[in-house]
């Protein structure tokens, strides 16, 4: 279930031809650290590489065309880092994207510091751009059920329709992230006597979630209809050509389904995970339990769902109470 090296092959750090050899070598070592030691997801890997590439490109112009080197990175002042962030802002980069870019470059600097390559405390004095307080956008229970019941509505082949139903049922029934679900192999499914599914989440942290009967039945129905040989080492969710299903295919299927069912644009595969947490909270589960099920490292992340419940409570109050 660990990300396979092949998933990173198409994600390359754009090392500038004019980049100093000592910096180029170090950047490749940092990439290896992200892939092999840190085991970041391909999505995070792509983002960090893109952010550092932009940063190195900025330094090339910022220093009048001089090849960026390790010495360049070590000698940068707070004003240089601010100039880089200002340039991204002038290019129209949103606060969230600039915050992520800063996170990627800080990751590189922390790694350089830990390995004794260089030390530059200036970057740690740079404030992260303020982010808007965003709340999860779950679906109502009836909307979630409509998605599960009609997942095969637009599919020409029965097995693909059942695949989508099984995937969406897993996301809503177990609260998985889409990439967690798509990394599963058939061998990861619990046997009939086991009522729990082991999931490998962010940062390669494993958690255990209840594998409820409706999820098991939906997945078993999909496996039986699947035209490809049942091999336990095979990906659980596969595309029309027999390869591991890509997130984009699942997202496209959800977009078509929500259009047909007249559901809001917030109806996405990830919204099913938000719905899982919100509906558990509404039905009496406590925050600590939900935190464990979602795999959140911080309870503050899980607490966002209490705010969603409060907003929904006020909406119902204002629409129903005669003196609201």
Can you offer a commentary on this structure?
With 324 residues, this protein is mostly helical. The protein is built from 14 helices and 2 strands; from the N terminus they run ααααααααββαααααα. The chain has a two-stranded antiparallel ribbon. α7 (158-174) runs antiparallel to α9 and α11 (269-282) packs across α14 (304-320). It is globular.
Question: Which structural traits does this protein have?
Answer:
324 residues; mainly alpha; 2 strands; globular
Binned, the helix content reads: 40-55%
Radius of gyration: 23 Å
Shape: globular
| Mean pLDDT metric | 87
What percentage of amino acids are in beta strands? under 5%
Note the gap between the termini: 52 Å
Based on secondary structure, the structural category is mainly alpha
Largest sheet: 2 strands, antiparallel
Order of helices and strands: HHHHHHHHEEHHHHHH
Uncertain segments are none
Strand arrangement within the widest β-sheet reads 1-2
The tally of strands reads: 2
Number of helices: 14
């Amino acid at each position: 279930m660990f990300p396979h090296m092949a998933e990173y092959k198409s994600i390359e750090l754009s090392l500038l031809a004019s980049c100093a050899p000592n910096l180029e070598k170090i950047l490749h070592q940092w990439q290896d650290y992200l892939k092999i030691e840190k085991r970041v997801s391909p999505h995070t890997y792509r983002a960090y590489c893109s952010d550092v590439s932009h940063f190195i490109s900025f330094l090339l112009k910022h220093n009048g065309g001089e090849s960026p080197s390790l010495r360049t990175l070590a000698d940068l002042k707070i004003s240089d880092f601010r100039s880089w962030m200002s340039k991204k802002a002038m290019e129209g980069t949103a606060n969230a994207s600039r915050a992520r870019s800063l996170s990627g470059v800080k990751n590189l600097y922390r790694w350089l510091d830990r390995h004794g390559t260089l030390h530059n405390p200036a970057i740690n004095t740079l404030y992260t751009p303020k982010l808007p307080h965003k709340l999860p956008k779950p679906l109502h229970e009836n909307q979630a059920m409509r998605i599960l019941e009609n997942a095969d509505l637009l599919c020409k082949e029965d097995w693909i329709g059942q695949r989508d139903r099984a995937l969406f049922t897993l996301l809503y029934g177990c609260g998985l992230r889409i990439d967690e679900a798509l990394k599963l192999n058939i061998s990861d499914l619990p046997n009939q006597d086991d009522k729990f599914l082991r999931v490998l989440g962010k940062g390669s942290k494993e958690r255990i979630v209840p594998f409820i009967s409706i999820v098991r039945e939906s997945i078993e129905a999909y496996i039986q209809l699947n035209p490809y040989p049942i091999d336990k080492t095979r990906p659980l969710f596969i595309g029309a050509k027999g390869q591991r299903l890509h997130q984009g295919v699942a997202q496209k299927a959800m977009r078509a389904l929500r259009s047909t069912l007249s559901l809001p644009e917030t109806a996405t595969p990830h919204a099913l995970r938000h719905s899982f947490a919100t509906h558990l909270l509404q039905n009496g589960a406590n925050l600590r339990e939900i935190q464990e099920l979602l795999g959140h490292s911080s309870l503050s992340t899980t607490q966002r769902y209490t705010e969603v419940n409060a907003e929904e409570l006020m909406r119902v109050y204002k629409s129903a109470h005669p003196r609201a």
